Fold:
Amino acid sequence: MSIRMYDIIKKKRDGKELTKEEIDFFVQGYTNNRIPDYQAASLLMAIYFNKMNKRETLDLTKAMINSGETVDLSQINGIKVDKHSTGGVGDKTTIALGPMVAACGVPFVKMSGRGLGHTGGTLDKLESIKDFKVELSKEDFFNISNEINIALCSQTANITPADKKLYSLRDVTATVENISLIASSIMSKKLAIGSDAIILDVKVGSGAFMKDLDSAILLAEEMVEIGIGFGRETIALITNMDEPLGYAIGNGLEIKEAVETLKGKGPKDFYELCLSLGSKLLVLAKKSSNEKEAREMLIEVVETGSAYEKLLELVEYQHGDIRYIENTELLPKAEYILEVKSDDEGYIKSMNAEEIGKCALILGAGRETKESEIDLSAGIVLNKKVDEKVSNGDVLAYIHGNDKEKVEEVKEMLRDIIKIGKKNEMSKKLIYGEVTKEKTKLY
Structure:
């Protein structure tokens, strides 16, 4: 009996389980333009309301992986590790974490996409470094990884084409926020590239996709289950995105902060996150038998300068100008740098990360659409974080921009976003918990 798209939509509309064959039929047909948008949108809406079980979600992920090419990393020596963040504000983790892990002798190989939203993605940030080449042939990618244990490049165009097409449709049909659809979208891209172990940084809070802890835990569990179901070592950490990570938001500014961190002078929260993610990666890669020892290894490569040297190597091997790392004052600079001063005293109660992200977007640090040009010099550098004491006249943040009107507009916005008052009774958490194949553990 032949499969019909009408029957698949009806079945899911009625809350029934789809077979692997039906899911494959839909993904292949939609990717190859045999199924029209209106039918695909109907099925996505039915999935949105009636959900998918774990088996359906794994089959959807596999179908999306099989819609394009996969990258076999077996030519790269050692146990290869990768990290994925669900996205946040000021999230420059890969740029510091990658060199730290690689300096410990573990291959950190990553293919990234571009950023869409308040700031650029890892690739956009790296392009703040003059001549840095993110487009690499597979051969170069393998060779660089084997030579220096790290390579960061753009995904080939034909990885998970089904995901690109489906995401565009979900975006305009209000079907983005479904755990199965989010998890399969993220994991299909990760699993198409054959790393041996993956750590997921699942953000929760005002600046994250998942606003509350319960939904972040559900997403983390779903993604870990998909990774394990695909035969990959997978762990997730659930981390705080109620305020930006570190102080810098914006492409060139974040590169500068990552460099400072590798020199041992970075923000406490950002360095701590790199140590937490990195220690788990070293254990997954069998470089260390426990996280305490792994953490000490990471601290040592920062303190001895070998993690910083690894970043220099990465930039050099990918044709970038290392002077931009040696002297971060060479990175793209904005014409206007404006101080935002406090007219109150007390403690920073909150600073909504999403709203700060929107400010960075107004300044040009991110993309409104895929076609938008990014201003690599624009962004915001915070001077205070949540729970810190503030006096009248203290600088709360610096705004970097090239459009005077927009800089002034953001200055007024930040005054409202950064809330000052009495000290918070509960101290903030950086990491809420972890999800492994065995259990979910909240800290």
User: Anything to note?
Assistant: The radius of gyration is 22 Å. Residues 213-229 form the longest helix (17 residues). The chain has three domains: 5-65, 81-327+432-442, 334-421. Residues 228 and 234 are 6 Å apart (CA to CA).
